Structure formats: structure tokens, C-alpha cells
TrEMBL record:
Protein name: Sodium-dependent transporter
Pfam families per record: SNF
PANTHER family: TRANSPORTER
Repeat listed as a keyword: no
GO cellular component labels: membrane
Keyword Oxidoreductase annotated: no
PROSITE patterns documented for this protein: NA_NEUROTRAN_SYMP_3
NCBIfam families xrefs: Na_transp (NF037979)
Length: 449
């Protein structure tokens, strides 16, 4: 561990932290609902291809820039660009990413707050506290404010402890817990009536839909959100990786785990929709379209849990605990982006910086809660539809065009001398220079049109 900056103490620690950032509500809620509303398995296939062929190379660009810079996102991007225009661009992209991460956290904390209150609700019901249980599922201001604040405080408490004792330690505990809950839930749901129809819809693709522009735009947006790209988060996590580690394989592990969990979450959610349908909860219209994308998690699944009787309470608790844990390991990475910048740029101590930024983000979240109809969707669109693809694209341009090729390859080589003999070595620099910017740009323009 270096004296001033933190560093992940082990390979496993980094993988858990970065996969923790990647695996979140986007995987367990976003991916299955997008799959259900975009033609099932065709979306899954498009997602897999885009995640490995575009998002993974873009993730590598951010990790490499971060590890080379050994600093916050702005300084790391400055280090590979020339003074003048290059440094100005570095500030715009690095700081833009930090603001994007903070804004994502401001809406993510609200949703995570709903997950936490839904985790406690079955306990209140079990304890016979009907009034408390009703309040916990109400859409009241008091509930939203309390749980949003509670979630931000939890995030702040972990981040204030630093890289090794905060981010790494908690990711190593929470990620295995998440896997255990996820697999137990799948084992239960797959034994229920209707589950096999759901499994078929999830796994058998309708090839005619695969090249639909809307489907591709949604799949790429989902892959970017899921791998936390364009937010400076992976630059800063990259900066905490030791020079002895093999970056290419670390990035590959993170991508594989992220895609795997999204895929596995689909094995839970899509069959669960069909189980609910078999039990009389209406999920699909007569034409087979998903009726309520937004209310899936808070209306459809709870209706399913309720229909299960008392075991439903336990399942409901486990499901929302899973969601809350996934959200927490992602939110700590979002907070780390602005905190690391503030600590390094202004020399503030970590504890002060974390509470100050946590406080500012809480204020933004509260503003969204008070103006929900006007702001919630707006902030989501601004950050995930515009901010992330655009900033992710810029990071590829930094790595591919602003940095000299020798420096880029040299950084990749550290920790793995054999990289030179791999296809990655031959293809990636070219890929990051031409293919990624072009494809991401095309999909981005398409999404705006
Ligand atoms: N990857 C997270 C998810 O799938 O839920 C969301 C996320 C985390 C987005 C961190 C952006 C970020 F910086």
C-alpha cells in the first residue's frame, strides 16, 4: 500500500471492487427488464456481443489510463495529453465524468433507498407492524427522504475508510453474499409453475430482431451503464491497481463477471414474470408486450411474493436485500470518483471530503425527490443516455489518439510480458483508435435521432 494513495491489496480485492461497481441495479433490474421489453433472447445476444466487442475495449482504455496516471481522473488524463488543448480536454472529460458519477449517485441513491425500505417491509409485516409496513411501501416524501439519506450515509461510511479498509473490504464481503442470495432465489423460482415458459422466452432468440436500431442502442447503453463507463470510476479504480498486475485479464474478469451476473439475474427475473403471470398477476398484454417496465420490481414481483404466503416474506426480504447490496457496491464507486479528486486536488482529508461530497449529493437527491416528476427522468437521461456514451467515447479518443502508442502499449505490458504475443496486443490499440469511437459515436447519434 503506497504511503499517500490507496491501493488494492490483492487481485481478488480489485476484481471484487470493480465487479462490485459494475454489478448493480443495472444488472439485476435494468438488464432483465430491457430484455423483456426488447424481444427476449435477441436482446441478450446483441448485449453479449456489444459488451465484449465494444464495452470491454472501452473499459480497458479507462483502466490503462488510470493505472498509468496513478491519480484522479483529471490528472490521469492530463498525464497522457499535451498542455494547452490536451489539458483543457482532459479537465473537461475527467471532471465531466466525476460530475456524471455524482449525478448518477443522486438518482441511484433514491432507487436504492426504495430497495432498502422494501427489504425492511417483510420484517415489519412478520412482526405484525401493519402500519409501518404500509409506510415502508408508500410513495411518501418522508420515506424517500429518510431512506435516500440512510443509503448515502452508508456509502459515505464505507468510502471514508479508504481503498483497502473501505472499498475493498466491503466489496469482498458483499459480492459473495449477493451471489449466494441470487442463486438461492433462482433455485426457488425455477421450481415454480410457469418458470420454464419464461426460460424459453429468455433463451431462444428471435433472430429477425437482432439488427433493429432501437435494440442495439438500448443494448449498448445498457452495457455502458453496467460497466460504469464514462464516469471516471474505472479510471480511478485503475489507478489503485498495482503495476505488477495483468490489466488485460483483470479487465476481462470484471467484464465476464458483470455479463454473467446480468445473464443470471435474467434467469431469475424473466421466469419470475411468467410465474407471476401463471398465478394471475398480469404482466404481459395479449400481444405479449411487457405491461409495466417501471413497476416490475415494486408491483409485479411484490404481488408474486404476496401470492406465495409466508415463504413469500422470506423471499421478498432476500430479493430486496440482494438489490440493496448490489446498489451499495456500485454507489461506493460513484462516490470515490469525486472524493479522490477532492482529496488530491484540494488536499482535503478523506473523511472531510467524503462527508462534504456525500452532503452535496444528498442535497441533489433531495431536490430530485421534491421535484420528482420534472427531475428524476431528466437526470437519468442526461447522465446515462448522453453523459456516459459521450465521455466513454472521449476516453477512447484519449487513449487512442492523444496518448502515444508506445506509452500505451508499455503500460499494458507492465505486469504481463507475454501480452505481446496475444491477439489483444495486435487488435486493441487499433480498435480503440478507430472501431470503438466510430461504433459508439454511431450508436450515440442514432439514439439522439
Ligand atoms: N454499473 C452500475 C449498475 O449496473 O447498476 C451502475 C453504475 C455504477 C453506473 C457506477 C455508473 C457508475 F459510475
Amino acid at each position: 500500500m503506497s504511503a499517500i494513495r490507496g491501493e488494492f491489496s490483492s487481485r481478488f480485492g480489485f476484481i471484487m471492487a470493480a465487479a462490485g461497481s459494475a454489478v448493480g441495479l443495472g444488472n439485476i433490474w435494468g438488464f432483465p427488464t430491457q430484455t423483456a421489453s426488447n424481444g427476449g433472447a435477441a436482446f441478450v445476444l446483441a448485449y453479449l456481443v456489444l459488451a465484449f466487442c465494444l464495452a470491454y475495449p472501452a473499459l480497458m482504455a479507462e483502466l490503462v489510463v488510470g493505472r498509468h496516471g496513478q491519480a484522479n481522473a483529471v490528472s490521469a488524463l492530463r498525464k497522457i495529453s499535451k498542455p494547452g488543448f490536451g489539458h483543457k480536454a482532459a479537465f473537461t472529460v475527467g471532471f465531466g465524468g466525476i460530475v456524471c458519477a455524482a449525478l448518477i449517485l443522486s438518482f441511484y441513491a433514491i432507487v436504492a433507498g426504495w430497495m432498502m425500505s422494501a427489504t425492511i417491509e417483510p420484517i415489519a409485516t412478520f412482526a405484525g407492524q401493519a402500519e409501518a409496513a404500509t409506510w415502508l411501501t408508500s410513495q411518501s416524501l418522508s420515506r424517500d427522504l429518510l431512506f435516500t439519506a440512510g443509503f448515502i450515509i452508508l456509502t459515505v461510511a464505507i468510502i471514508s475508510r479508504g481503498v483497502e479498509n473501505g472499498i475493498e473490504k466491503w466489496s469482498k464481503r458483499l459480492m459473495p453474499a449477493l451471489l449466494i442470495i441470487l442463486f438461492s432465489l433462482i433455485a426457488y423460482v425455477l421450481t415454480q409453475e410457469g418458470a420454464m415458459t419464461g426460460l424459453k422466452a429468455y433463451l431462444v432468440p428471435d433472430f429477425s430482431r437482432i439488427f433493429e436500431a432501437d435494440l442495439l442502442v438500448s443494448a449498448l447503453g445498457q452495457a455502458f451503464f453496467s460497466l460504469s463507463l464514462g464516469t471516471s470510476v474505472m479510471i480511478i479504480y485503475g489507478s489503485y491497481i498495482s503495476k505488477k498486475e495483468n490489466l488485460v485479464s483483470l479487465g476481462a474478469y470484471v467484464t465476464l463477471i458483470d455479463v454473467f451476473i446480468a445473464f443470471v439475474a435474467g434467469l431469475l427475473i424473466i421466469p419470475a414474470m411468467y410465474v407471476a403471470q401463471a398465478q394471475g398477476v398480469q404482466i404481459f398484454s395479449d400481444t405479449g408486450a411487457l405491461l409495466s417496465e417501471d413497476t416490475l420490481v415494486f408491483q409485479v414481483l411484490p404481488a408474486l411474493f404476496e401470492s406465495m404466503g409466508s415463504i413469500g416474506l422470506l423471499i421478498s426480504f432476500a430479493f430486496f436485500a440482494l438489490m440493496s447490496i448490489a446498489a451499495l457496491t456500485s454507489s461506493i464507486s460513484m462516490l470515490e470518483a469525486p472524493v479522490s479528486y477532492t482529496v488530491e486536488k484540494f488536499g482535503m482529508n478523506r473523511l472531510q471530503a467524503t462527508w462534504t461530497i456525500g452532503g452535496i449529493i444528498a442535497l441533489i437527491s433531495f431536490t430530485i425527490v421534491f421535484n420528482f416528476a420534472a427531475l428524476f427522468g431528466f437526470v437519468i437521461t442526461l447522465t446515462t443516455q448522453y453523459g456516459q456514451p459521450l465521455l466513454g467515447l472521449m476516453c477512447c479518443i484519449f487513449a487512442g489518439w492523444f496518448w502515444n502508442r508506445g506509452g500505451l502499449l508499455n503500460e499494458i505490458k507492465q505486469g504481463n510480458e507475454h501480452t505481446e504475443h496475444t491477439i489483444f496486443w495486435k487488435i486493441w490499440p487499433w480498435y480503440i483508435r478507430y472501431v470503438c469511437p466510430l461504433c459508439i459515436g454511431l450508436v450515440f447519434v442514432n439514439s439522439i435521432i
